[in-house]
User: Fold this.
Amino acid sequence: MELLDIMKNRHSVRQYIDRKIEADIREQLLDCVSECNEESGLNIQITFDEPECFSTMMAHYGNFRGVNNYISLVGKKDKDLEEKCGYYGEKIVLKAQELGLNTCWVALTYGKKKCKADIADDEKLICVIALGYGATQGNEHKNKELSSVCNCANNMPDWFENGMQGAMLAPTATNQQKFYFTLDNDKVYLKAGKGFYTKLDLGIVKYHFEALSGVKCIIE
Assistant:
């Protein structure tokens, strides 16, 4: 399946059925995580068959059900950590979707103290991603007008249009889409707006754009 189709098919899912993730799929996911960690220097981890992290009032409030697997986005504390976790976390999310699994980015509504990830003193847990076989496939999110998120909505080259198509499919916290692309002499600048988790969102959006356009973004 083409990456664009995977992005289109992937939606946030909060309820999961009681089905274990098969060994071969686990192996492929873990391989993807290892590649991301090696490339980024992060310490992303997957925890399988562990329901406690989502057996809390916060998870209940967030309407999560049946979450027994999750991805923990962990890395050394620095100013770019959230963006980096968003970028590589989304790469793993799309791999999970390709393998027939469902996911949901979770920043607050889980039991942080019950998360089983190994976190060193100089590291920080940014968020987790629920993982498993969804009870549904989720729903599409609404999009802002292109003119509100880039400077060339009515006159863009094909490669930039491809990238923006990916960017608009990227998940963001409460679907806020607080990002802005500027195309200037074939260079692409990307800036986060003000709000909660916008740096994490920036990394997710950046991955979508770069994966479909083939052009690197310069973060402002």
